Amino acid sequence: MLETLEHEGYVTRNPSNSGYVPTGRTLQLSRGYDLHHRIGLLCEPILTEFRQAIGWPSDVALFDHDAMIVVQTSRETGPLFFNRRPGFRAPILETSIGRAYLAFCADSERERILARLRPRTDPANALASDPQRLEALLSDVRARGFACMDDSYSDREYSGQLWAMAVPVRDEQGILATLNIMMLRSAVSPEAAQERFLDMLITNANRLAHVLRHASWG
Asked: What is the pLDDT of residues 80-129, one digit of tens each?
């Protein structure tokens, strides 16, 4: 039973012992798993302020077993609604939030993530089996300091109308989450977004890192 739950992404092995721990995917099954909800509540004031400052919505996402789980979003407020609520699971290799995490996490963690994704044959995980192309992409993300949504994901999910850029939420101890901005392609180009929003995106990611690192989970 545990092997089945692990295969489906509801539990994962605890590397420090022989036990298992639940993943964020259990949010789809029960109200009893509330850590992601509590983290989301901590992020909400910062996201609200950020949305008011730039006019575009954002997500905060955590890595969860084989995907990025959105724990808080400012998408549901204001004139632009993208229909992504907390609990949404985003693919790692095609989204800005996933690529930002993969580029800045520890090498050992990156390899564990890719090992989970390589056996999967769906197009969303194709990069896991193309190490040279993937490393070139992640090196570019690290050099620029931010990641962008893959065009194929934008085409599939948003008819090519939207795109996103994301940065890691991290401090000297490591990466905690990722933060993005979602924008209309017709309104903001990647070049304009980098010039206008990147510094504010990084500033708010640093604010989130401070809040999350110093939170008490009781």
From this structure: 545 667 778 999 999 999 999 999 999 999 999 999 999 988 888 999 99
User: Please, what is the Cα angle at 45 between 69 and 80, to 5 degrees?
Assistant: 70
Q: How far apart are CA 171 and CA 99, in angstroms?
A: 18
Q: Spell out the SS3 assignment of the chain.
A: CHHHHHHHCCEEECCCCCCEEECHHHHHCCCCCCHHHHHHHHHHHHHHHHHHHHCCCCEEEEEECCEEEEEEECCCCCCCCCCCCCCCEECCCCCHHHHHHHHHCCHHHHHHHHHHHCCCCCHHHHHHHCHHHHHHHHHHHHHHCCEECCHHHHHHHHCCCEEEEEEEEEECCEEEEEEEEEEECCCCCHHHHHHHHHHHHHHHHHHHHHHHHCCCCC
Could you tell me the sign of the dihedral formed by the alpha carbons of 48, 51, 57, 62, in that order? negative
Determine the Cα angle at 201 with ends 126 and 109, to 5°.
40
Nearest to 204 by CA among 179, 171, 177, 176: 179
Maximum C-alpha span of the chain:
51
Closest to 75 (Cα-Cα) out of 61, 88, 59:
59
With CA atoms as reference, report the closest residue to 174 among 73, 80, 104, 77. 104
pLDDT (tens digit per residue) in 163-173: 999 999 999 99
